[in-house]
Amino acid sequence: MKHKIIGLIVLTWFVNSCSTDNKETVTDEEEVEVIVADNSLSDDEKSAGWMLLFDGENTDGWRAFNGEEFPDGWVVDEGSLKALGLGGDIGGDIVFAPMDFENFEMEFTWKIGPGGNSGVFYHVIEDPKYAAPYETGPEYQVIDQRGFEQPLEDWQSLASDYAMYPGDIESVVKPAGEWNVSRIVFSENGASYWLNGKQTLEFIPYSEDWMKRRNSGKWDDFPDYAKSKKGLISLQDHGSEAWFKNIKIRPL
Which residues pair with 243 in a beta bridge? Predict the structure, then answer.
């Protein structure tokens, strides 16, 4: 699969009149597709400060959460990082270890197996006292919205800020096994989640409303949830197959 950037080439030329000295300007517009291969950046993206977290071929920079090696539960599969579904509520998640991110814009392409559940975390803190990334990091929910076996609360649904802000996903949900494009924009001035070109939610981090949701009871067992304003990016293996590619990010 390739992602496309559409540019406009404007062609302008002058036609001399046969009977007068006046000149007529004729403008035509053509759409030109600029093909950008998976797991690569366009020149404009490079200039804007984007960086790839995965090149489609190797796992450099990625390792198990609280671990030292890349785990057996993940493989590189046809240009994507694939979770094999060997993880669960605890264990199986991976982190991009070389650097922390604070304010950022992130994009990623993903698909999920039938009935599957996964997620993308940010501001994740590693420490032996934490069993999983969700104890510290907010989550962009990835799930088979149409095929999940149990009923989902709105805060559990696809493209939600898990257990914090439900996402509006009407008209943009795809069946399991189809590729989706997601985006996270995070800064203290405002954050938003996106799915397949649609903004699903927005919020102001650390605002009065955010604190009310943070302290509503869901996170009582995880007192350090979202306390850190910077941390690692993490991908979840929650017991089902999931694929991720075109993982790119730029600091804001």
Answer: 82, 111
Other C-beta atoms within 10 Å of 127: how many?
Answer: 9
CATH class of this structure's domain 39-251: mainly beta
Contacts of 33 (CB under 8 A, 6+ apart): 4, 5, 6
The H or E element containing residue 32 is: strand 23-36
Helix (H) or strand (E) holding 148: none
pLDDT band of residue 32 (cuts 50, 70, 90) is: low
Computed over its alpha carbons, how large is the radius of gyration of the chain? 22
Contact present, 103 and 186 (Cβ < 8 Å) = yes
| 140 in Cβ contact with 167 (< 8 Å) | no
In one letter, which amino acid is 61?
G
Domain residue spans in the chain? Answer: 39-251
CB atoms within 10 A of CB 230: 14
User: 230: which 2 tokens?
Assistant: 């910077």
| pLDDT tens digit sequence for 34-55 | 688 999 999 999 999 999 999 9
